[in-house]
Structures are given as C-alpha cells and as structure tokens.
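Internal ticket - ligand job 203, iron/sulfur cluster:
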Amino acid sequence: MRIGGLVPFTTIDYPGELAAVVFCQGCPWRCSYCHNPHLLPGDSTRLLEWEDVFEELARRRRFLDAVVFSGGEPCAQKDLAGAIAQIRSLGYKAGLHTAGAYPRRLQQLLPMLDWVGLDIKELPEHYPVLTGAAASGYKAWESLALIQAAGIPFQVRTTLYPDMPDSHVDRLCARLKEMAIEDHVLQSCRPPPPSADTTPQTL
Ligand code: SF4
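stdout (structure tokens):
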C-alpha cells in the first residue's frame, strides 16, 4: 500500500459513523480541479507505511466505527483488498471513496465493503475533458451500475467544477434519477491545498 496520509478521526467521511480516513497515493486520471494533486503520482514519496497505519488503527478501534480508504484512487492499489481484510479483522466497517476508475477491481472489492462514496463527475461523454482519459466516463458509470447491483449502501457525489454548465448538472441529475439513485449529493469545488505539506497525516 502506498499511503499519503491518515486522518485519524472524522464524522463526515462515512455517513453516520465515526471513521478514520486512509489517503492512498496514485490515480490514473488528472482532473484539473483535484483537491489532492500531491497524491496523484503513484510513485511519489511514500509518507506512511501501511504497517504503522494499521497499528495506529488497531490502537483506536475502541473509539471508531469505520475506516475509509480515499485518495487519489484507492482502487489503483493492488494491495487494497488485503488492507480492507485487515481492518475488518479489527472489527471496523470498511468504506471506500472512489471515482470508479477500475470497475473490475471494484467489483471484486464490493463484497468486502460496507459503504461506498462514488464520485460521478459528469455524463460519460463529458469525462475525457475533465480527466484527460478517453474511456473514463464509461468506467465510472459502469462502476455505478456495479455498486447499485451489489446492493450495499452508497452515495453518489458530484463536484460542481468551475464553469460546469447548468444544463450538464440538470441532465446528470435526471439520469441518476432515472436510475433510481436516492443518495446524490452536489458539492462545491474546493481549491487544492497550496502544497503537499498540508497532506493529512499522523504517526
Ligand atoms: S479522479 Fe479524483 S483523485 Fe483522481 S485526479 Fe480526479 S479528482 Fe483527483
């Protein structure tokens, strides 16, 4: 696991649960408005060792309900399934923040997950302009279909990027409504932190 940071306590990253958030390094996409650009290179300096993070989570298990893997794109990490299994062995619920960049990997992880926060940025055809990756939209929407079919709790989040046309927002919301997506949140675009020094980390 390549870990860029750990938030040891949050009430907002897993609905209804007290959670810690593990920030994974690496993402195949390059959204211009990314809030964590320092986490995007998969080969950037590793800030925390998974063994240390796991020890810290073990120490905190009396005070927390869940661990959320966020990023970057957590599904870019080949060891993610093992890490999820480890935190579940401590009694934690497992949450995942993902943009849906790896639908096949996500499908394998879904039986291990208790909750997913899925970033749906746009309708599929508008993704490449945002992410710089040709098939990104179809992967994200395939991931949405897989999560929905799995029947686990999930939330769809859409970041209103600068100059996102209202017509795009309306069409996106309508498409999700057609799919009977009940939990869809629109969120404002936050500027990225000024430097990697602000990466959340402890230990
Ligand atoms: S998918 Fe998420 S983590 Fe990856 S570049 Fe886009 S906003 Fe950043």
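Auto-summary: The domain at 3-190 is CATH 3.20.20.70 (TIM Barrel). Confidence is low (pLDDT under 50) at residues 195-199.
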